Amino acid sequence: MVAGEWPGDPTADAQEAPTAQQSSDEDDLQQALLALSRLSTGQRTLEDSLLKVAEFAVRAIPGAEGAGVTLLQEDRADTIVTSTPLVAEVDAVQYAIGQGPCISAARSGETFVAGSLGGDHRWPLFGSKVARLGVHSALSLPLLTPDGVLGAMNIYAKAKYVFDGRAAQVGELFAVPAAIAVQNAKVLDQTKRLAKQLQVALDTRTIIDQAVGILISRNGVSAEEALARLRQLSQNEHQKLQTVAKSVVDEAVRRGRARHAE
Length: 262
Prior knowledge:
- With 262 residues, this protein is α+β, with helices and mostly antiparallel strands.
- The chain has 2 domains: 2-188, Beta-Lactamase (2-Layer Sandwich); 193-261, Arc Repressor Mutant, subunit A (Orthogonal Bundle), CATH 1.10.10.
- The protein has helices at 12-15, 20-37, 46-60, 85-97, 101-108, 124-131, 165-219, 223-237, 241-261; strands spanning 2-3, 66-71, 79-82, 111-114, 137-145, 148-157.
- Strands 1-4-5-6-2-3 form a 6-stranded mixed β-sheet, sandwiched between helices.
- Strand 5 and strand 6 (148-157) form a beta hairpin.
- The radius of gyration is 27 Å and the shape is elongated.
């Protein structure tokens, strides 16, 4: 469903015979979809993957001059990437005031088209600010998955009434595989972060176990008593348990090397 404004009949183009421009637009869409299908997120950061999606969107959608992708995240701040500095500036306004087409698209799951942002009653504060930046047209597309709205894409152009019904249709066609690509990038990023957290936890457990072993050997205490001493040192020195354990291990290593050097 599209919520938008543009002059004339948005279905008029579809009723006419295909033009050279329409053929060119179809080629651009196909090339963008092909590039999107080949996007490998395995070797990219989450932000880089989203940036590629934004760049492909500009290539796919007629009249687009810049794009941004917003990924909604529950476990940390939303990830926002933009294809140009101007788009970054526009989106910064949008999220600073909590009002704009991308926010509306993400909240409602609907596509929003604006052809004269400066006079658009739906986002009066946002529209007046970005119009002064020279941006007047916007196309905002929700990234929909079976689990709900994953985020949204913002497509911008400087002139008025750049995006019509056909542009919205092309954008929605592109948004389907784009949502899949963004979801894959998000899952991969979560997997990488979880693996890193598990590795940190494993390293922490290892260094603590080593420190406990050193205290057992040095003082003839039980494992429970050695761990209690480490915790007491952690509290007394206002340091993390891992930091205290590492200092015990490092000191034991220094002593061992010094003995061997004698």
